[in-house]
Amino acid sequence: IALLFWMMLGLIWQSIAVYLIADPVLHFKPAWWWVVAGSYCLAWCAGFLAIWAPGGIGVRELVFVLTMQAILPQHVRESFQDQASLQGVLIVLGFLLRLWTVLGELMLAVVAYAWDWRGAMGRADARGRKPAGQIIPPPSASSGASSGPSPAAG
Q1: How far apart are CA 108 and CA 110, in angstroms?
Q2: Distance between CA 95 and CA 109 in Å, rounded?
Q3: What is the pLDDT along the chain (154 residues), one digit of tens a residue?
Q4: Is 72 exposed, middle or buried (0-12, 13-18, 19+ CB in 10 A)?
């Protein structure tokens, strides 16, 4: 349940960012943010489920463009001269969303490496590593599981 909560929170956060990217071009009313959010979430899920495409590349953008074309309000469609220019804008938006995602992942990677720079450098004194030469004790006999003959059975 906690993972689902974090996924939903992440998609809502990304949807707000996508709306802020798309709004200057498409001139949505703030009440229509859910159109962009729904299109982005559907595209993200389709890209996630496309196991043949690494990172959903191409699939996410295609689903975003097709979904936006299908559900754009009429006043947004009429603000463009022709269908080709609208499609071009949506394709550029799809590319910008991919770029946004890649930049976000790179920023997250930088934060992770900065947080655990010793581990990123492969140093022995990194958090979570056992000191060299430390022997991990075998499971105790009180656990109830026997993995072979006991030493006393000789």
Answers
A1: 5
A2: 21
A3: 788 888 888 878 887 888 888 888 888 777 777 888 888 888 888 988 999 988 888 898 999 999 988 888 787 788 888 888 888 888 988 888 888 888 888 998 888 878 777 776 777 777 766 666 666 677 776 655 555 555 555 4
A4: buried
136-140 long-range Cβ contacts below 8 angstroms, 24+ apart: none
62: Cβ–Cβ under 8 A, 6 or more apart, which residues? 94
Task: Report whether 104 contacts 113 (CB < 8 A).
Answer: no
Tokens of residue 53, six digits: 């495409």
Q: How many CB atoms lie within 10 A of CB 82?
A: 8
Kindly state the tokens that stand for 72.
């754009």
What is the value of pTM for the model shown?
0.67
